[in-house]
Amino acid sequence: PQHEKDGGSGQQGRERMDGAREARRALRAGIAEESTALVVWELTQGEVGKTSEEWRAGLIREHPGVDKEAALGQVLLAAKSHFRFSPPDFEIFPAEIVEARLAEAESTRLREAFAVTGAQFFQKLWDIHTRKRGALVPQEIPDDELADKLKQLLLSRISDPDTSEDAAVWKLLVKGLPEIQHVPLILAIAWGLVPEHYNFWLDRADYQCGDDWAGQFAEEAGALPEKEDLVRRGLLQSDVPFVSVDPETTTDRDDAFFVERMQDGGYSARVSLACPACIWPFGSGLDKAVLRRSTSLYLPEGDLHMLPSAIGKDLFSLDAGKPRLSLVLDIRISPDGTLISTEPGLHSVCLSRNLDLETCESMLTGDEGGSDCAPGDESLEDMLRTALELSRILQARRIADGAVITERPDPEISVQGEGAQAVVRIEDGPEASLTHFVVGELMVLANGAIAAWAGERHIPLHFRTQDVALAKAFAGIGTQPHELTRGVPGLPPAFPGSPTCRQAGPRPAAYAPLTAPIRRYADLVNQAQILSFIESGAPLMGFEELNALLPILSSRLEAVTQVQRLRPRYWKLLFFKQQGDKKWWDAVVSEENEAFVTISLPWAQLLVRGRRRQFDEKTYPGMHLQVRLGKVNPLLNEIQIVDAREA
Questions:
Q1: How far apart are CA 392 and CA 440, in angstroms?
Q2: How many CB atoms lie within 10 A of CB 323?
């Protein structure tokens, strides 16, 4: 039929056209392969800025023709680093722009190659974490250059997860991984760069362990012993039989005391404080490094000290029988606990005893069986009991003034083993002892007394402040979880502030930390202010200079104290994870509302919140329960109440 004949002819026509088009495309592709954009650029750059395609084609061919012109246009379009097509002409980039664009292109190429290889490697690390595969074999680890870049990237992200540096390549590297916290840490652990249970909070706070950080300041630190000896030899030796009381393992003793009753019924409390500020090189590299550390840390896995060991432990620690520089506060108190006077002075002291907590407690309680008192210690026991008598008067007065005091024993957390073999134990902490009570009250007295003394003389100090006001109803001593929750959550963390800020909580209205100069930088500065005023009549720093120091000190304290708060909680959660979800634990309801109930495990000092429907309708604050805990992820700070029942 005619239509079939015509249809066949049309099909053949289309095939001929497609063939001709493909032949022309192949022709132009072949010409394009022979054409060199670089040659055109070298012939034209610097001479002209924008020319037509025909003009450039004529530079390399006498009769270019339409196919040759089109082929060259394709070549120039592809050479984006050298040309830009602005129809109908091509713009020619100068040499400096071309170099920059080529460098950027090469950087992009390397970054993409890095991302592809790195992403594949990260996926293998993630599979190790999820136990989908075993450890890496050497052949799977990237070459040294790439491995170093990946290591540096992971460690950088561990210390600063929100950094914008390398954000684009990081996004490519983890594209296929779950979007959860701590991916860099998880990958680093799987790779073996850091151990299991790595304390990444220290990295984020830029707080180094040990004394290696102080190595670069060895010359500055090495000059201090000679200065200390020179100053101390120029002072009279105090004959007051000061006594320090610390845990048996303490190696940096920074306070001691001696209390006696006066003839008028009042009390004399003399507090001896280690005195690094007397010779401290403020403004030096060592000083700036110590400022960044800001405070010592006391963690379950070990203590980290603000000062280098040679300074904090050896040079200034108040060790019995060794002459030491000391800022001594001579405080007089009336029989009812009213502060009468405070007199600070620089002295050379030699402590009579370094008591441990157990020995001091036995002296205070008269427990002869638990005491290792030597003959002739009767006077020491009398002094300690006088200090206890004064401490009770001081606390009663503070409560009458509205102080909120919490008494809860700290649990004793121990970690045995390292890395994946770490096993956590939590034991009941000692009940509030008379020893802690006495030392605590005397230090509160000293810090409050020096604040009042400095205020009368308009000496600027760093004050510990909690700028809130609490109702009188909250005043007193809280021991139960629901009592602590009621009074304490309204109190923000205490940080250095101005002397005009209110002070809530257990301290006096004016409170300037001074009693731990080898453990806290704010105390070191305050000590320097007092000493300078005693010696010259003027503080070391004025109000403006001291306030200028406040932002960095506050920010560093906030970062470092976060380690002190979160690291013990991590070990607590790991403990409960290791115990499993089948055990029942004694708990107390801390607070409750229509949606949630918060329970406290008092012995572990751990709060856990659960949904209201998991509890009986009659649940109330102070109610004793038993709970099972599960779904614990210490790294993500997650723990859930699996079940609850009335005790």
A1: 11
A2: 17
From the CB of residue 542, how many other CB atoms can be counted at a distance below 10 Å? Answer: 12
**104 phi and psi angles, rounded to 5 deg:** -65, -40
Q: How far apart are CA 543 and CA 458, in angstroms?
A: 10
How do residues 72-127 score in pLDDT, each as one tens digit?
666 666 676 666 666 777 777 777 777 777 677 767 666 677 888 899 999 999 99
> Token match 């069986």: residue?
369
Q: Which long-range contacts (CB under 8 A, 24 or more apart) does 616-624 make?
A: 616/646, 619/589, 619/592, 620/589, 620/592, 621/482, 621/485, 621/486, 621/589, 621/590, 621/591, 621/592, 622/480, 622/481, 622/482, 622/588, 622/589, 623/588, 623/589, 624/586, 624/587, 624/588
Tell me the backbone φ, ψ of residue 253, rounded to 5 degrees. Answer: -85, 120
CA distance 184 to 151: 10
Cα 233 to Cα 617: distance, rounded to the nearest angstrom: 72
What count of residues does the chain have?
A: 647
* 552 CB neighbour count, 10 Å cutoff: 13
C-alpha span between 92 and 238 (Å, rounded) = 87
Contacts (Cβ under 8 Å, ≥6 apart) of 452: 339, 342, 508, 510
Contacts by residues 568-571 (CB-CB < 8 Å, ≥ 24 positions apart): 568/299, 568/300, 568/413, 569/606, 569/637, 570/197, 570/634, 570/635, 570/637, 571/300, 571/301, 571/413, 571/415, 571/424, 571/634
For 182: left if phi > 0, alpha if psi spans -120 to 50, otherwise beta; the answer is: left
**What pTM value is reported for the model?**
0.78
Q: Are 254 and 516 in contact (CB under 8 A)?
A: yes
| Cα 48 to Cα 32: distance, rounded to the nearest angstrom | 23
